[in-house]
Specification:
This protein is mainly alpha-helical and about 425 residues long. The chain folds into two domains: about 200 residues, MFS general substrate transporter like domains (Growth Hormone, Chain: A, Up-down Bundle); about 200 residues, Growth Hormone, Chain: A (Up-down Bundle). The protein contains 19 helices and no strands. Helix 12 runs parallel beside helix 14, helix 12 crosses helix 18 and helix 14 runs antiparallel to helix 15. The two termini are about 20 Å apart.
Length: about 425
């Protein structure tokens, strides 16, 4: 498709947001992303065995907490967009901190299963209000070259997946069976980080002015790397096939990421792999995610995010297919490295493509609708468990997910930037 030329306006002499403040907010929101990743999905699986033992739950009840957490994250995707547009970014941060702190308090005080479900639901809502959607929205407004800062944001978040389980271990070394203390510590950390973010964020109209300043000052040719020089409305964007292809790609990476985290250890141990080796593969997968995002960050805006997404989906499909038949170290390493690359790059690639294809002005609402994919993806582990009960193995579930990812990969390969649409004003 021929490049759409755009003439860059002169950059304002006095930027709305000083450079130091933009970098400070990038670091703070990245640390929040790190903390919510470390303290929710990745830590919960390590804490659960102690909770099950002490509270005498069964694993069906305990495991359903994962589904509640993931489904709430997906179903609440529109909440941060509504709060930010109506009350501002600071309100979303404060609401997210309060909600997540309440969730951690429920988990620390839990005795009955329903308080556990309430705690995971509150953590899911708080996760969405303070982390991905809000963080991406702020960073996209503060930086007109977004590949590098968004790559940094996703990389720091991925590090949380590595640190989370080890933080549980560290607390248990100091205070044996200290899972209640662990949840209280997570509450304290998220309150401190969230308070710092809220203090540095401006008022309701502040980010809109900052985003307009960066859009006007952008020196990037909008025809490069699939960028278009139009800000699409939500209604126009959701009528394009590109939106649904990116929605499907985001769903696939969440489906595979959640299923690998929830089922891979049980699957590999059933195939004769020791529990220690299975956990080691999961750690390698998490470290590969971080390495992949670090590499993408280094490339910044020089790498076409569409090529990044093609590589991510191909790697994710190969990884989950290898997992379905893995029982020795070479195949297990293929699974761990390939799925880590896929999960590490797919979310970043989709985020950048949405900004490139549909512009920044309505990206908050558009990205929020993409994140709704998290709700059905949360049932990946449940589907895998049912197939395990029906067939006696987890392998068919992983093979099904590999085929689904392959179909979405084909659609991405043939995807092109959306054509200018009547009623979608050109950016001036």
């Amino acid at each position: 498709m021929p490049a759409l030329a755009a003439t860059a306006a002169p950059r304002a002499e006095t930027p709305t947001v000083p450079r130091w403040r933009a970098i400070a907010l990038l670091i703070l929101f990245s640390l929040v992303n790190f903390q919510v990743n470390a303290s929710t999905f990745n830590a919960l699986g390590v804490v659960l065995p102690d909770m099950v033992r002490d509270l005498r739950w069964n694993w069906t009840e305990a495991g359903f907490g994962y589904t509640v957490l993931g489904a709430t994250v997906g179903l609440s995707s529109l909440a941060p967009a509504w709060v930010i547009r109506r009350f501002g970014v600071r309100a979303s941060v404060v609401a997210g901190v309060a909600t997540m702190a309440a969730g951690f308090l429920c988990l620390a005080c839990v005795h009955g299963i329903w308080l556990f479900f309430l705690g995971t639901a509150l953590c899911g809502l708080g996760f969405q209000l303070i982390a991905l959607i809000t963080g991406v929205h702020v960073i996209a407004a503060l930086f007109h070259r977004r590949g590098l800062p968004l790559g940094f944001y996703f990389t720091i978040g991925a590090l949380g997946g590595i640190v989370g389980p080890w933080s549980v271990w560290a607390v248990n070394q100091i205070w044996p069976d200290g899972w209640r203390l662990f949840w209280l510590l997570q509450m304290g950390v998220i309150v401190l980080l969230g308070a710092a973010c809220a203090a540095l964020c401006g008022g309701r109209e502040w980010l809109n002015r900052a985003g307009a300043d960066d859009d006007a000052g952008s020196s990037i040719s909008l025809g490069e790397l699939g960028r278009v020089n139009r800000d699409w409305t939500v209604a126009d964007a959701t009528r394009t096939p590109q939106f649904y292809i990116l929605l499907a790609a985001y769903f696939a990476q969440l489906l595979i990421g959640g299923s690998v985290a929830g089922l891979s250890v049980g699957h590999l141990t059933q195939r004769g792999v020791t529990a220690t080796a299975a956990l080691a593969m999961l750690s390698i997968e998490a470290m590969t995610q971080t390495a992949a995002r670090t590499a993408a960050t280094a490339l910044g805006d020089r790498l076409d995010p569409k090529l990044m997404l093609i590589g991510a989906l191909a790697a994710a499909g190969v990884g989950v297919a290898a997992l379905s038949v893995a029982s020795d170290y070479p195949v297990m390493l293929v699974y761990a490295i390939a799925s880590g690359i896929g999960f590490g790059l797919a979310g970043l690639a989709v985020t950048l493509l949405l900004l490139n294809y549909f512009g920044r002005q309505h990206n908050l609402e558009i990205f929020a609708r993409i994140c709704l994919a998290g709700a059905p993806a949360a049932f990946g582990s449940t589907i895998g468990g049912r197939l395990r009960d029906a067939t006696g193995a987890f392998g068919p579930a992983f093979q099904l997910y590999a085929v689904l990812t392959g179909v979405i990969l084909i659609a991405v390969i043939f995807m092109r930037a959306p054509s200018p649409s009547e009623g979608v004003p050109e950016r001036t």
